[in-house]
Automatic annotation (TrEMBL):
Functional description taken from the UniProt entry: The B regulatory subunit might modulate substrate selectivity and catalytic activity, and might also direct the localization of the catalytic enzyme to a particular subcellular compartment.
Classification lineage: Eukaryota, Metazoa, Chordata, Craniata, Vertebrata
The UniProt record lists the keyword Cytoplasm: no
Organism (species): Delphinapterus leucas (Beluga whale)
Gene behind this protein: PPP2R3A
Transferase keyword on record: no
Domain EF-hand: from-to ranges: 351-386
Molecular function terms, GO-annotated: calcium ion binding; protein phosphatase regulator activity
Annotated protein name in UniProt: Serine/threonine-protein phosphatase 2A regulatory subunit B'' subunit alpha isoform X2
Amino acid sequence: MMIKETSLRRDPDLRGELAFLARGCDFVLPSRFKKRLKSFQQTQIQNKPEKKPGTPLPPPATFASSPRPLSPVPHVNNVVNATLSINIPRFYFPEGLPDACSNHEQTLSRIETAFMDIEDQKADIYEMGKIAKVCGCPLYWKTPMFRAAGGERTGFVSAQSFIAMWRKLLSNHHDDASKFICLLAKPSCSYLEQDDFVPLLQDVVDTHPGLTFLKDAPEFHSRYITTVIQRIFYTVNRSWSGKITATEIRKSNFLQTLALLEEEEDINQITDYFSYEHFYVIYCKFWELDSDHDLYVSQADLSRYNDQASSNRIIERIFSGAVTRGKTVQKEGRMSYADFVWFLISEEDKRNPTSIEYWFRCMDVDGDGVLSMYELEYFYEEQCERMEAMGIEPLPFHDLLCQMLDLVKPANDGKITLRDLKRCRMAHIFYDTFFNLEKYLDHEQRDPFAVQKDVENDSPEPSDWDRFAAEEYETLVAEESAQAQFQEGSFEDYETEEPASPSEIGNKGNKIVTSSLSEKCGKLQSVDEE
Ligand SMILES: [Ca+2]
Ligand SMILES: [Ca+2]
């Protein structure tokens, strides 16, 4: 109580008002005082720094170079900060923890020397790869670095402009996440939007050894890039805001995965975000549904996915805009390829946290943050109708409900929250029960203890998605090669062939995939890009 009062007195506006009050002056109306008090308290709550457990306290020397204030009310904040910082060391570092040991001048002089080795001291994008390494950055940071130093306008970057840019970056941004955002984001933005990733990913497509076969299919560059961007946002943008912050980057494995790209020549080994095989699976699944190939699927198209395994009611919910970006889905009743990426990953990996949120939003029909018994019954009704049509006697809703409540064990009776579903680690079984008949029946037939074992095993990888993508890729490649063999009339050879090793399948796959993609892109050429 004492502390609160002291800090209230430090609010310069309030101090004046308190002084008036103290003198018994009528000028300050109680209502105005209350309002002012409330707004001051709110500002204080907002200014309360995010405390990160385990973050080491910085040495006192770093206080001098404290970055810009974050407060929406700098006036008030400055006063509070100035007083508080005397006693409490700073512990909130939105731009990363400054490292007192790192010698920026040394780094900058190394960069200068590296530029000396380049003709005219002007680096093109290829040379920028070497500069990135001198800067201690992963290779694929080169395009963002090149662009941040103004390279895309002239086609090269001079030592002078690069060093000026890098000096500024080093003094304001202290960890990789903060630097990465600064390099990629639009001017004065502290977050990344989807299009900010395009130049970096185009460079990966153009220069990664595992994607050279895509050179001849430029039509597919944007499809691959769209897929990777959606996968990045699906995994990293945990807030669903469409804006990736430095905190979200830090909490994700994105930068580590990006750094892996330069060490791993086989891009399919990098199953997070970048795998070409995963892209191929997603795109083929979409292509099968998008019968007129205009890069959109209708509600009827989407319901054909996996032999109509998903219920109409859940598909309807997706098309109501519960989980999609923009208004196209609701207004025009069509889903873009980007939205399909979210659907497919969510459908095939219902243990993924984003997937759990995705389906929760869909099932929470009234949007009150709780799955009520009414909502569960609504979805189960269609499952029952379907089972009856198949001659299967469904479990009565009441019995099923008991089963599900036992599975989820919600904290509050009769109300299932997102937290309950995440905690119970059975969300996939729960969701399939309510809207995916094929998978529901599949779970039912399995030994319940086997499922339990699966969960308890808790092995970190592969995810349901990884498993699905690998299986589907093999099926697709087998289909393609069977077709190719058939067309060539060498079916005998195919039958006597030794089984191919996984790596051979991969290589073969890439070739086949390219040819089949080219075939598909031939059909797509008249269609505008997204
Ligand atoms: Ca279509
Ligand atoms: Ca609800």
